Amino acid sequence: MDNVVDLGSFAAATENAFALLPGDFYTKMPPEAVGVKPRLVHANAKAAALIGLDPKSFNDPVFTEIFTGHRPYPGGEPLAMVYSGHQFGAWAGQLGDGRALLLAQVRNAAGELWDVQLKGSGKTPYSRFGDGRAVMRSSIREYLCSEAMAGLGISTTRALAIIATNEQVHRETPEPGAVITRLARSHIRFGHFEHFHHNGKHDLVRLLADHVITGYMPEYKDDHAAWFGEVVSRTAHLIAAWQAAGFAHGVMNTDNMSILGLTLDYGPFGFLDAYEPGLICNHSDDTGRYAFDMQPAIAHWNLRALALALSSLIPTDTLIKALDTYESIFRSRYRALMRAKLGMVEDRTRDDDKLIAELLTLMDRARADYTLTFRGLSDPGEGSLMTSWPLLFAAEHVAAVNWLARYRARMESEGDRCPAMAAVNPKYVLRNWVAEVAIRAVEDQGDPGPLDRILRLLQSPYDPHPGFEAFAAPPAPEFGGLCVSCSS
Ligand code: AMP
Ligand code: MG
Fold it and tell me: What is the helix (H) or strand (E) element at residue 299, kind and residue range?
């Protein structure tokens, strides 16, 4: 074809490292080429930069063809990965990329290896009863949320493009389909290790651990025990970041846990609107296993499942010692993040802990908006702190005024902490109602405008973005407590 972008020269060079592992790890196959005349809905220049891809390529039809799987990725060796996992606490056996495909891996200018993965690109040998498809609704949610997390500085997979397949996908009702391109340093999950361990293939557990160490954590070469300690630490840091940001993942099965400590597999997630520690955002989670306040303990449970999967590689007492570090790493990281949110620098440990706990209790009682409560403290320019901030606490506003007085007395010696606080307390998070605005515009009007605008707010969530304050607002009552279906 003339006059089309040659991705081979527009993106970083491919280096398909996972495809060099033995065939036990994947099925090599091309994507199914789903849909008819796929149409680009949105592409993300920030993510493109990670793989050295020139945004000029977005307008070329070849871009859309490649990232729906209608044309091969130049130099790619497409494959579906196999993994297993524990789902809702029970061993689920073999899972794997049922609707995802690793198109290629590329080495960027910074020397980092990145996965380029399609999601919704058709069936694979691991599809089980699924159709290999993804719906537009959840693809937009994943697209926005992965970039929102990156904007917040939280480790995550990224999203390059979202493409409409022009076909209906059957869930509870027929819905428009989509393919999303995900980028990540790696999509390897705890469940990959569980897969080989529980199938008795201990040599492959070792091979995979060494693959991860060589490719992504070379400082742990020849030291599996220290490497596992690092996985524990990264996971504890990730969960602390989720808790401080008010993010509920919704489906923390071990197959959704990244070995690199990334937020992975966005499904029925939610950011807290009203502070509700027991929030269950997943419609299918009857027992609340994955409630917001359960996440720190569940991550530990998942790390134990990983430890078991590594028990042929690392002595049990070493694994147990590493697991035992989780709680203190989580606690100290969470505490540091919450102190930063409140601008506390001088260490007055016991009193500060009490003040933070009292605020959270009050927020819980008043169902105060999580994001606005912290942002309000860091941004007094948006109204008098003493008069407008306590209004977030409705019937508890008198208690809020009292807390505020004590907080201000505590902070007197700290100087002006507002700029530093505004840099860690976002104004914009991906509230469900905001995602819904983007979804409705794309699905009902074919208009990617709101999606584009919301993406930009979320990519720099600490900036004020004058004129777009409406997107920082809590949900109208009819939207409140939106619970998201697992079907996607
Ligand atoms: P998830 O709940 O999205 O993390 O997926 C759990 C498992 O089900 C993974 O192995 C997915 O690949 C697979 N899966 C989810 N949805 C589909 C689908 N529509 N078609 C095929 N496999 C799917
Ligand atoms: Mg998953």
Answer: helix 295-309
Q: What would the two tokens of residue 472 be?
A: 């920082």
Chain-centre distance for alpha carbon 46? 16
Q: What is the mean pLDDT of the chain?
A: 94
Identify whether 324 is a catalytic site residue: no
Q: For residue 139, give the nearest of 461, 428, 443, 433 by alpha carbon.
A: 443
Containing H/E element for 228? Answer: helix 224-245
Token pair, residue 260, equals 């690199």
Interhelix angle for 432-445 vs 136-152, to 10°?
Answer: 140
60, 115, 255, 379: the active-site residue: 255
Q: Three-class SS of residue 290?
A: coil
Residue 387: per-residue pLDDT: 78
Q: What is the pLDDT of residue 481?
A: 53
- Give 333 Cα–ligand 1 centroid separation in angstroms: 32
- Domain segments of the chain: what residues? 344-416
Mutate to test the pocket of ligand 1, among 88, 91, 99 (most ligand atoms within 8 A of CB): 99
- Residue 381 has a pLDDT of 59
Calculate helix-pair angle for 449-459, 136-152, nearest 10 degrees.
Answer: 20
**Distance of alpha carbon 336 from alpha carbon 39, whole angstroms:** 45
pLDDT at 316: 98
254 in Cβ contact with 86 (< 8 Å):
yes
187 within 8 A of 216, measured Cβ to Cβ: no
Gap between the Cα atoms of 93 and 101, Å rounded:
20
Q: Which atom of ligand 1 is nearest to the CA of 255?
A: 4
Task: Taking each helix axis as running N to C, give the angle between helix 224-245 and helix 202-216, from 0 to 180 degrees, rounded to the nearest 10.
Answer: 70
Closest CA to 140 of 439, 472, 376: 439
pLDDT of residue 2: 38
The type of residue at 4 is V
Q: What does the chain come to in residues?
A: 488
Are the C-beta atoms of residues 228 and 41 closer than 8 Å to each other?
no
Burial label, 172 (beta-carbon count in 10 A; 0-12, 13-18, 19+): exposed
- Model pTM? 0.96
**Which residues does the chain have with pLDDT short of 70?**
1-10, 380-384, 478-486
Ligand 1 mean position to 70 CA, how many Å? Answer: 21
pLDDT tens digits, residue range 233-259? 999 999 999 999 999 999 999 999 999
All residues at 6 or more sequence positions from 309 whose CB lies less than 8 Å from its CB, including other chains: 190, 193, 194, 196, 197, 198, 205
Write b or e for each residue in 442-451: b if 16 or more Cβ atoms lie within 10 A of its Cβ, otherwise e: bbeeeebebb
* Closest among 362, 390, 375, 475 to 421, alpha carbons compared: 375
For residue 156, the cross-strand partners are: 263
* Centre of ligand 2 from the C-alpha of residue 345, in Å: 39
Phi (first) and psi of residue 270, to 5 degrees: -160, 145
